[in-house]
Write a structure and sequence with these properties.
By secondary structure, the protein is an alpha+beta fold. It contains ten helices and 13 strands. The strands form three sheets. Strands 7, 8, 9, 10, 11, 12 and 13 form a seven-stranded mixed sheet that branches. A four-stranded mixed sheet has the order 2-1-4-3. Strand 7 and strand 8 form a beta hairpin. The chain is globular.
Amino acid sequence: FPRPQDDYELYLRHVNSYYHFRISSCSVTLGYVLPYVAEIFAAQPGWRKDDTGTPRTLTMVAGDDEASRSKVVAETLAAMRSTKKFEVLEGWRNERKSVFGPKGEVLFTIERSAVPLLGVMNYHVFMTAYTRSADNELRIWISRRAETKTYPHLLEVILSGGIAAGEKPYDTLIRDAKEEASLPEELLRSRVKSTGMVSWFEIRDDRAGGEVGLLAPEAHYVYDCELPDDVVPTPGDDEVEDFQLWTVEEVRQGLQRREFKPGVGHVILDFFVRHGIITEENDPDYVELLPRLHRQLEFPLRRGQRAGRYDEESS
């Protein structure tokens, strides 16, 4: 997806080719919607499409709070699913994601599989687990996605998971680490380190499942975890085929061969930068790489909760 700092005119033409998704009580754009998707939504009760100005808009006009807006979205998607309007809804997950407003407030929740239809922000956690040998050689645990998943057989770091509505990133990490890699909670709580975020903007291809060209702006909370040599992750569900312990060079080659799921490369490159594997001395694109790992996205973002001690101090 074009960046405005690279070519602003190209960027402007690109974003104005989509409908800007909004709600009636907030003029901020929450996502970009493909024109034919906007047509289908606009035919449903509670939605309005406006082609008269620039940008063109798709607005949810029904609902005046989180609960009522969430109800409108749920009813709209249920109707679309029953009439098979969109292939992407065949991956229905029965898991809700939150959509945030400009003050970090939850505007509504939406079924996970429908998020790219409205092009709204999506949030995940990613954990890179690694070991160090006696001679300090770093190796990284790599997982392979199951055949039944989107992006089948592509590679990831040891853990990735979508943050459900009402869930905190760290809770997502603990839950998914147990489900996907059979890693105990007590081990993670003593070893996991929060290391920041990476962000990017995907235009979905056929490997994602569903309609091609849907937009997916994403922010990933990233964590590191140095595992003891005697801890071997094992698949705990049907989402992962296996885990392998790779050298840094093997991971580099996998990235070059495009064997990793889109977006995971950002997580790995961020890990390489933070651990001094990629530096200005060994990568001529180092200065260009850093802002690309932390793209400034155009939409309202979620906000974390203050720790209790700060609330007390500010009261």
